[in-house]
Every structure is written in structure tokens, then in C-alpha cells.
Write a structure and sequence with these properties.
The complex is a heterodimer of chains A (107) and B (267). Helix content of chain A is 55%, strand content 0%. Chain A contains four helices and no strands. Chain B has one domain. Helices cover 89% and strands 0% of the residues of chain B. Chain B is built from six helices and no strands. Chain B has helices at 2-36, 43-107, 113-181, 188-211, 214-252, 255-259. In chain B, helix 3 (113-181) runs antiparallel to helix 4 (188-211) and helix 3 packs antiparallel against helix 5 (214-252). Chain B is elongated. Classes of the chains: A mainly alpha (107), B mainly alpha (267). Chains A and B meet through helix 1, helix 2, helix 3 and helix 4 of A and helix 1, helix 2, helix 3, helix 4 and helix 5 of B.
Chain lengths: 107, 267
């Protein structure tokens, strides 16, 4: 009985190792295997600091100053629009990947 | 006797599995190596059909990956734009509320009808300037986004064209090699060498072509400049309008000079 168990364990181990090698082969050498996570697209927007509006006063100079701070707050947000360009060109890796469609080693 | 028979069978299975385990890596390596060098004269022509299908499959896989990436980029841009639009609205609401508080404080200073009129004119001038600035900013952003969309499409078309040319040329070269291999008494080695050189040239052409995409990237940088200039102008115009409104107010409301620097802060 014990002998039979050992035999079963040995068979299972051998099958597992064999399957492991086959899986490794598929992952490493087949084209559709490993999917490398794309990190370039995960560029997060650089959220600028929020500017807190000043306390209200009846002074026109203070009102004008508050409006000038609003400009700065607005400008910081508008600059973030430009980060979309980095996202648009983040397919560079995929475009360059076509180079590998021709495998010189197999020729 | 029966036990002995079972034992023998099991042992045979284990041996077989071990042989597989040992042979598998060897076979894999042999297969990989076999792809690289052909030692026999006919070797290449025997493999050319597989090279053709493998190459086609690789092009297909790369194309799928590129399309998937493009879709993720499109979704991400859309999300980010929505997020910025929402935050811009929140900012505007925040500053509008602050201005309402300022104006309410200013209203308290109106002792006469004339002063009330001066304050109202100042407030209207400020509101008009804000509206003009926000409209100009909105236009600048919309033009920038449209410009980026155009550049994105141009980039896609450029790349797609380059990839298609690369693929068609490569497949045509391999197909030609397949045809050559079918000829009587063909020199397999010569066919292989010709194909290798052709594919090398085709690949170099693709690399050179795709590097021209830098021009489109430069166009996108021009969009940044245009957007910054438009926003700069909108803000400069706003500052001028604001200064004018302030000067007009002070001219008609001399008491304000005395209050300069004093702040009736709101709790």
C-alpha cells in the first residue's frame, strides 16, 4: 500500500515537472505568451497644489489680488493638458516591437 | 508475481516520464538552435514555409498589441480630460464664491447712490473680464485638444502605413523565397542568403520610416506653444481689464485710497 502511494507521488511529481517545463517553454518562446505590463501609460497627472482663495475684504486691492491668485490656480490646471502628449506617444514600445516581427535568427 | 508485474509497469512509466523530462529541454534547445543555422543544403527550403507562417503570426500579434495599446490610450485621455474639466469647474465655482464674498463686503461700503453705482460698475467690469478670459481659455483648450486629436490620427495613419509596407514587403520576400525553393536543383543556401539580405533591408527601411514620426511629435510641441500663447494673452488681457476697472473705481471712489492696506477680514 505504502509502495503504491510512493509510486503515485513519484508519477505526480514527474508529471508536474514535465508540465512545468512545457509551460515555461510556452511562456518564454511563444509570441503570445508573456505580457509585459505597460507602465508608460500609467503616467499620472501631476496635480498641482490647490490655491486657497484669500479671505474676503471690502478693499478693491484685495479683490484684485484674489483675482490674480485665481489666474495662477487656473494656469496650473491648464498646464496639465500638455501631459496628454506623453500619453499619445506612449505606444512607441509597440511600434518598435514590429522590428521583432522579422526574426533574423531563424533565417 | 502480480505485484512484480505491477512494479515493473510502474517502473517503466516512471522511466518513460524521466526520459521525457530529460529530453524535453534538449529538444527545445535543439529546436531553437535548429532555427538559427541550417547545416544541410536543403534545410532552409524545408523551413521556409514555417518561417512564412511564423512571421505572419508575429506581425498579427504585434498589430493586436498596438491596437490594444491605442484603445487604452484613448480611454485614458478621455478619463483625464473629464477629470480636468470637472476640476476646472470646481475651481471656477470656488473662486466665484470667493468673489461673491468680496463683492458683498464691497457693497457694504456704498454710502450713497453714486458710490453704489461706482461699485456696481467695478463689479460688472470684473465679471465681464472674467467671462472674456474664461471663454478665451475654453477656446484655447478646445483648439489644443482638437490639434492633439488630429496629430494622433496623423500619427496612427503614418505608423499604420509604415507597418503595412513593412509587412507586405517582408511577406513578399518570403513568398519569393518559397517560390525559388520550389525550383529544380535550387541552391537553398543562396535563396536563404538572398532572403536574409532582403529582409534586412526591409527592416532597416521600416526603422528609418518610423523614426520620421518625430516630425509629428514636433507638431504636437507647436500645439503646446500655441496653447500657452493663447492662455497668456487671455490672462494678460484680463489683467489689463482688471487694472482699468481698479483705476476707474479709485478715480470715482477716492475713499478707497484711504482704505488701501486695511483689510476687513471675514471670519
Amino acid at each position: 500500500m505504502i509502495k503504491k502511494d510512493i509510486q503515485m507521488i513519484l508519477i505526480a511529481a514527474v508529471v508536474a515537472v514535465g508540465l512545468g517545463i512545457l509551460c515555461l517553454y510556452y511562456l518564454v518562446f511563444s509570441d503570445g505568451g508573456l505580457s509585459i505590463p505597460q507602465v508608460s501609460e500609467k503616467v499620472e497627472e501631476g496635480r498641482g497644489e490647490e490655491i486657497t482663495p484669500p479671505l474676503a475684504t471690502s478693499n478693491v486691492g484685495d479683490i484684485v489680488n484674489a483675482l490674480m491668485k485665481e489666474l495662477l490656480d487656473e494656469k496650473m490646471l491648464l498646464l496639465e493638458e500638455e501631459e496628454d502628449i506623453n500619453l499619445i506617444i506612449s505606444d512607441d514600445e509597440e511600434i518598435q516591437g514590429f522590428d521583432q516581427s522579422i526574426n533574423e535568427d531563424e533565417l | 508475481m502480480k505485484m512484480n508485474y505491477n512494479y515493473k509497469n510502474t517502473f517503466a512509466i516512471i522511466c518513460l516520464m524521466l526520459v521525457i523530462v530529460v529530453l524535453a529541454p534538449v529538444l527545445i534547445l535543439a529546436q531553437q538552435k535548429g532555427k538559427g543555422v541550417s547545416s544541410e543544403a536543403k534545410g532552409f527550403c524545408n523551413r521556409v514555409s514555417k518561417i512564412s507562417s511564423d512571421t505572419g503570426q508575429r506581425f498579427g500579434n504585434r498589430n493586436t498589441k498596438l491596437e490594444q495599446k491605442r484603445e487604452r490610450i484613448r480611454e485614458r485621455i478621455e478619463e483625464r480630460r473629464q477629470d480636468r474639466d470637472q476640476r476646472y469647474e470646481e475651481k471656477k465655482a470656488k473662486w466665484d464664491a470667493n468673489r461673491v464674498n468680496h463683492f458683498a463686503k464691497l457693497d457694504e461700503r456704498a454710502g450713497t447712490d453714486e458710490q453704489k453705482e461706482v461699485i456696481t460698475e467695478f463689479q460688472q467690469a470684473v465679471k465681464a473680464a472674467i467671462e472674456i478670459r474664461r471663454d478665451a481659455v475654453y477656446t484655447a483648450i478646445q483648439e489644443f485638444r482638437q490639434g492633439l486629436e488630429d496629430a494622433k490620427i496623423a500619427r496612427k495613419e503614418f505608423i499604420d502605413e509604415a507597418v503595412i509596407a513593412f509587412r507586405i514587403s517582408s511577406e513578399a520576400a518570403i513568398e519569393k523565397a518559397e517560390t525559388d525553393c520550389e525550383q529544380e536543383g535550387v541552391d537553398s543556401k543562396a535563396v536563404q542568403e538572398t532572403l536574409r539580405n532582403e529582409l534586412k533591408t526591409i527592416k532597416e527601411e521600416y526603422i528609418n520610416t518610423r523614426q520620421e514620426i518625430e516630425k509629428i511629435n514636433t507638431d504636437m510641441e507647436a500645439l503646446i506653444t500655441a496653447k500657452r500663447e493663447a492662455i497668456e494673452k487671455a490672462q494678460d488681457d484680463f489683467k489689463q481689464a482688471l487694472e482699468q476697472a481698479k483705476d476707474d473705481f479709485k478715480a470715482d471712489f477716492p475713499e478707497d485710497e484711504e482704505d488701501e492696506g486695511e483689510q476687513e477680514e471675514e471670519d
